[in-house]
Amino acid sequence: MITAVVLAAVAAIVPVSAADVFAAGAIDGSAVSTATTADTAGGNNSASAANAAGGNNSASTANTANGVQGLTGAGTDDGLAAGAVGGGLVGPAEGFVVGAANGGVADGFAAGTTGGSAGVTVRATTFEQLRAFASAADPLVVQVVGSIRVDPFGDMIPVASDKTIVGAGAGAEIVGGGLFLNGSHNVIIRNLTIRDSYIPGDFDGKSPANDNDGIRLDTADHVWIDHTRIERVGDGGIDIRKDSDHVTLSWNVVSDINKALGVGWTPNVLTRLTAHHNWIRNTVQRNWSIDNTAAAHLYNNYLENVTQYGTMSRNNARVLVEDSVFEQVNDPLVVHGAAAGLVQRRNILTGTTGRADHAGEAFEVPYGYSPDLARRVKDLVTRYAGPQSTARPTPSTITVALDGSGDYASLLAALGATRDARGPVTIRVAPGYYREQVRVWPSQSNVTIAGPADAVIAYDLDSGGQKFYGGPLGDDAATFTLLGEGTTVRGLTVTGTAAPAVRSAGDRTVLAGTRLTGFLAGHGRSYLRDCTVAGGGDLITGTAVAVLDRCTLEPATGASVTAVATPALQPYGILVLKSIVGCAAETATDRLSQTGQALHQSGASASAETATGLLSRTGQALHESGIGSAADAETGTVLLGRSGQVVVRESVLGPRVAAAPWLPGSGRFGEYANTGPGSGRPEMTREQARRYTIGAYLGGWRPRT
């Protein structure tokens, strides 16, 4: 019998039958009586020929076409097609199939999970219905129809035992909240998007109000999560906590969030987890973070564009990572703790940096499986992971705002939205204080990020500091890292505390009218025009080529405008041209580097004065933009260069520039046609200066600002 609360929640309960629009197959791999005759006893699809005893897939995804190809519709009118919502064979005109290659049954450690197959099937079209059905005591298959917005925002919907929560067709989603399995057992979640429970401005997810996971498991067992998409949630994408056990994650997409997947929150070592064919992309940490886990078997996963660290084994966890792909992942495989174990086999690491640890012995996998070759994983996962969805073309302009008026509330999310762009994309950032660490990945080319000076991007890592799991932060501590080709940053204020504000490691980077506390030229060519660089340490570092044209440069007392490490065989490093150097007081630059908000608080104009105007005003430039005054300046305290190849030409050198501004014997330095109280040293001849032009440094590239 179904409970009264469920009866009150919906006008009609829809049992599975051959007459129902959903009835031409099993929603969760359980048995139904339909016209489809390919179902064997027990409801599993014998035609897929991929099921081993106990429901495990002994043939792996060599039969992907049997289980996953139906992610597109089959021509039905309403999108809720007559076909199997979860598994089983359907005919060519019977709608869609959402399933793994094993025909739609749980595999791995969650084998035997049947969800709500013992009960009836109901449809949830409202939040009230979904909450009532999911928390009911009865076994139920709950079809989520359309977009359901959670109220109140951030609420975690309780999911009781013996439930299947499945999206009915393309576009089935939960917006502004997540699912919570607290002590539940025998639960299946499939073909569903869970998104947008992030509280703007809380990038690290530290606010109690932002403890909004996509799916949270506390002491849950026998849980299968399959073909879901979880994006832009407040805290963890999927958190498996407090001795949850017998869990399988398959064919899911977790993207555009800080924390992807965490396992642990317990001193006990009980959890057993299988994760295969998942796509983790544009995330920062916990990809996975696996703590005190008896056995975590991760195979055929694709991790892409990860900022801090990839898969981590912590404390007493035992982790086996096989036949997976790590692309543009920092520290892809990490062992943290003397007792932690991580065994890796046949993985592909592309564009990764840092650690790829291996420790301990592998556990014996207690079920049959045959992983796909690692070289096939990227193609399979990017084609088939996630729920059935409708195509959403990337717009040419994306907006970001903290007040909810934009398309997204963080730059991380906005940049994630550019991944499928077929041409240049502009991201417009509204005023506000965005505390987040941002990366434009190599796969994101020709992206422009624009905003006023009071749109402040800030983070507070120390490049000289240590990661919590060991090793220096180094260049990865930068607030804004530009890896994509053709990236333009226009306007904005970008700050770091003890790390570069901006690190350029992609070719043809342009910064125009940007205010920043430091710039690292890491790779490729960069062009800075009408920028203000003012910080507490050396301003321009790195090994690559950069031109600073009509910029204002204000290092702190004792610091240097440049401290680069240009390779000996590289003819060009840094060119400073028609700029203003060393005219403002240290107090303002120190304030900027310490707070990350000084320019915003000092009332600096959103449309900064051009350097041509500043050159005519010399020592008044920074004073009038609210950053300091020449009258307060400490004279003779700033260097122009410590090392590398640097030329400063046609610039105004203020009183703070030292009389001997070049560290002797450590670089290739030159000056030409400079003016102001900090100038007056021997210079290059006109003939020599012809070798040090914008064109020479940028090698034929003509940047457009």
UniProtKB/TrEMBL annotation:
Compartment(s): Secreted
Domain of life, per lineage: Bacteria
Keywords: Aspartyl esterase, Carbohydrate metabolism, Hydrolase, Lyase, Polysaccharide degradation, Secreted, Signal
Signal peptide: 1-18
Cell membrane recorded as keyword: no
GO BP terms in the entry: cell wall modification; polysaccharide catabolic process
Main location: secreted
MF GO annotations: pectate lyase activity; pectinesterase activity
Residue span, Pectate lyase domain: 120-332
A GO CC term assigned to this protein in UniProt: extracellular region
Family designation: Belongs to the polysaccharide lyase 1 family.
Protein name: Pectate lyase
UniProt organism field: Actinoplanes lobatus
Taxonomic lineage of the native organism: Bacteria, Bacillati, Actinomycetota, Actinomycetes, Micromonosporales
